[in-house]
Write a structure and sequence with these properties.
Catalyzes the reduction of dTDP-6-deoxy-L-lyxo-4-hexulose to yield dTDP-L-rhamnose. It is an enzyme of class 1 (oxidoreductase). The chain has 9 helices and 12 strands. The chain has one domain: Rossmann fold. It is α/β, with parallel strands linked by helices. Bound molecules: NADP nicotinamide-adenine-dinucleotide phosphate (NAP).
Length: 298
C-alpha cells in the first residue's frame, strides 16, 4: 500500500513515519519537494503518485502567528484537507487528519464530547474547524483525531521550553486556569496505526471524529510541575523546583490568539472503538521525558 504522509518532519509526522511503515510504503515529501501551500503542486503530486492512503499531519500550527497570517493558515488547515478529502473520496481511500481542542469555545468545566458545540476563539481554531467540516462534507472515508497540547522529544513544545527554563531560572510563573491534557506525538502515531489497522483490514472503525489524548487532566502549571518532578527523579540538574512554579491566570499572560480555558476531552468513543484504555498523561510524560534526556545525552 502506498501511503502519503504530509508533515513528516513535524512532531506527529516524525512519529508517524515509524508507525506507518508497518502498514505500507510511506512517501513523505519534504517541504522542498512539495509545498503544501501550492494547490496545483499538491494536485500534480497526487496525480503522479496515486497514494492509496493519506495521513495528513501537516498544518499551520503557529497559533499566535495565524492571527496575522490568516490566508496561509486557512490554506494549510482548511483548503489542503478539503483537497486531500476530494482525492480520497474519488479514489475511495482513507484520509487520516488531525484536529484540535481549539475548535471548541472552552466554556464550562465538563469534558467535551466529539459532537459538542464548536466555537473557535482564534484563527487557528477556526481554520482547523473548517478543515474538519470540509472533510466530513466530502463523503470520503476519514478518521479525524482531535488532540490537545502536543509535545515530543523533538521539535518546539512546552515540555522542552519548560526544561530549558527550569535549568536557567529558580522560579517561574505558569498559567493555571487553562485545563487540558498533554498528549505526546508518539501516542498519537501509535493510536493512528492501531485505528488504521482496524479500518483497513476490518470494517470495525467508523468514519468520523475521535478525541485522542491520554487519560486525566491538568493545567499548564500542573504540566510544568510534573515535568520538573519527573526530571529531578531522572537525575536532571534543575534550578527550579515544583514548589517554585507560581500559577497565574491567563489574563496575566496575554497572547495574540485567545485559548480555550476548558480543553478536557471525553475519550469514550476512541476507547470503545479501539478497545483500548488510554494511559495516564503522567506516565506518557515520564516516557517522553526519558526519551528526550536520552537524546540530549548522545
Ligand atoms: N502542536 C499542538 O499542540 C497541537 C494540538 C492539537 C492539535 N494539533 C494538530 O496536530 C497535527 C500535528 O501537529 P504537530 O504539532 O506535529 O505540528 P508541527 O510539528 O508544527 O508540524 C507541522 C508540519 O507541517 C509541515 N508544513 C507546514 N506548512 C507546510 C508547507 N507549506 N509545505 C509543506 N509542509 C508544511 C511542517 O513542515 P516543516 O517541518 O518544513 O516546517 C511540519 O512538518 C496538526 O494538524 C495540528 O493542528 C497540534
Amino acid at each position: 500500500m502506498k501511503i502519503l504522509l504530509t508533515g513528516g518532519n513535524g512532531q506527529v509526522g516524525f512519529e508517524l513515519q515509524r508507525q506507518l511503515c508497518l502498514l505500507g510504503t510511506v512517501l513523505a515529501p519534504r517541504r522542498q519537494e512539495l509545498d503544501l501551500s501550492n494547490e496545483k503542486a499538491v494536485s500534480h503530486w497526487l496525480e503522479q503518485h496515486r497514494p492509496e492512503l493519506i495521513v495528513n499531519a501537516a498544518a499551520y500550527t503557529a497559533v499566535d502567528k495565524a492571527e496575522s497570517e490568516p490566508e496561509l493558515a486557512r490554506r494549510l488547515n482548511a483548503e489542503l484537507p478539503e483537497q486531500l478529502a476530494a482525492y480520497a473520496a474519488k479514489q475511495q481511500c482513507w484520509l487520516v487528519h488531525y484536529s484540535s481542542d481549539y475548535v471548541y469555545p472552552g466554556t464550562g468545566s465538563m469534558p467535551l464530547r466529539e459532537d459538542d458545540k464548536t466555537g473557535p476563539l482564534s484563527i487557528y481554531g477556526q481554520t482547523k474547524l473548517e478543515g474538519d467540516l470540509a472533510i466530513a462534507a466530502s463523503g470520503c472515508l476519514h478518521l479525524i483525531f482531535r488532540t490537545s497540547w502536543v509535545y515530543s522529544a523533538r521539535g518546539n513544545n512546552f515540555m522542552k521550553t519548560m526544561l530549558r527554563l527550569g535549568r536557567e531560572r529558580d522560579s517561574l510563573k505558569v498559567v493555571n486556569d487553562q485545563i487540558g491534557v498533554p498528549t505526546p506525538a508518539r501516542l498519537i502515531a501509535q493510536v493512528t496505526e492501531l485505528a488504521l489497522g482496524r479500518a483497513l483490514f476490518t470494517s470495525h472503525t467508523p468514519s468520523g471524529i475521535y478525541h485522542l489524548a491520554p487519560a486525566g487532566e491538568t493545567s499548564w502549571q500542573g504540566f510544568a510541575c510534573e515535568i520538573f518532578r519527573l526530571a529531578a527523579a531522572q537525575a536532571q540538574r534543575l534550578a527550579v523546583t515544583p514548589e517554585r512554579v507560581e500559577g497565574i491566570p491567563t489574563s496575566q499572560y496575554p497572547t495574540p490568539a485567545q485559548r480555550p480555558l476548558n480543553s478536557r476531552l471525553v475519550l469514550n468513543r476512541l476507547e470503545h472503538e479501539l478497545k483500548v484504555t488510554m494511559p495516564r498523561w503522567q506516565d506518557q510524560l515520564a516516557l517522553t521525558l526519558a526519551e528526550l534526556i536520552d537524546l540530549e545525552s548522545r
